[in-house]
Amino acid sequence: MKVKGVNLGNWLVLEKWMNPALFAGTTAEDEYWLPRQLSKEAYTERIRIHRSEYITERDFVTIKSWGLDTVRIPVPYFIFGDREPFIGCIEELDKAFNWAEKYGLQILIDLHTAPEGQNGSDNGGICGVCKWAQNPKEVEFVHTVLERLAQRYGKRKGLWGIEVLNEPALPKAWEMMDMQKRYPPVDKEMAKGSGPVPYDFIRQFYKDAYDRLRVYLPEEKYIVFHDGFELTIWKDFMQEDKYKSIVLDTHQYLMLAEMNGCEQTIEGYTKYVQEHFAKEIEEMQQYFPVICGEWCLFNSLACGWDTKGGQTVLNGLDGASVESYTPEEKKKIYNAVAKVQTEAWNKGSGYFYWSYKLLTDTVNTEGWVGWDSWDLGRCIDFGWFDKRDL
């Protein structure tokens, strides 16, 4: 099993930095607060237009033409439209399955958010709040969402698998990212008691999710677990014969390598990727098929300044507004990190680039030089990937 894919980030789960215009006229930094700051009519109109235009049939044709075979689609916990004030998006996922099957692609459904937050970041749906694991009622709700997704798509030809939960913040990640400082909560009272997702809890949650999903999922459909940013702690997990078609997902970003002391040079990135990313994936591939479910070419060197682990102007940093390199110099940086990273992912069972597209205007908005590398379409157009490395 080898997968080559891309994430449809910011389509059904919003991230402000990827499309700031959607949040215009509000102070909301995340999906939780957006509908609470707009009228119901304005919110509904924005979301409907965004979803209908951001990803269309044409995009599935494009993805196929790049030689990719799978798309990872982040979905929110309110996908079925049963959590006011949010608007469900199951019809959009239905369309995606029809497009995927028409053009010979497969889909990994990725449950990207949980009520009350599973990581405290903007991509978890609510900044600075991480209390989902403490609320048995909401834990059960997430199980029912997964079950309904499995019931609906389990027999579909286009289903590659279901990822149980994106990026639960285990203790090390919670501390390293300093979540509540990086993503300050709007409502301090609501955020009280937030903390990392405990190891014992997540292991049990994953086992329960497996048992409940397998009722509806044929054995050949994959069930995917995220490593919580600790790839090597899962060696003794789900090794019993009863567990079939399990995949371990790890997210490896150069910006996280930088936070761990990686030198911001081509040589530094190359060395770090080979000695850490590739080595750990190769080690863990003995226990599970390992995919790198999120990664990209983004790095501080190409930005021309230290982004402090991928923090944006939205985090109150100035950023660069003038390019530090010629297009050829920039291409050289990206070609090098593309090659070494894809080599690392191929030690495992493949990858999904984050992300398919980005609607941030990196030219006319101050401070966004270098962020265009999150957009796979631009990376391909600019030749930042050698075709053999994608």
Automatic annotation (TrEMBL):
Residues of the Glycoside hydrolase family domain: 53-298
Keywords: Cell wall biogenesis/degradation, Glycosidase, Hydrolase, Secreted, Signal
Known catalytic reactions: Successive hydrolysis of beta-D-glucose units from the non-reducing ends of (1->3)-beta-D-glucans, releasing alpha-glucose
Class of enzymatic activity (EC top level): hydrolase
Localization terms from the record: Secreted
EC assignment: 3.2.1.58
Superkingdom as given in the UniProt entry: Bacteria
Family of the protein in this entry: Belongs to the glycosyl hydrolase 5 (cellulase A) family.
PANTHER family given in the database record: GLUCAN 1,3-BETA-GLUCOSIDASE I_II-RELATED, GLUCAN ENDO-1,6-BETA-GLUCOSIDASE B
Identification of the protein by name: glucan 1,3-beta-glucosidase
Species for this entry: Jutongia hominis
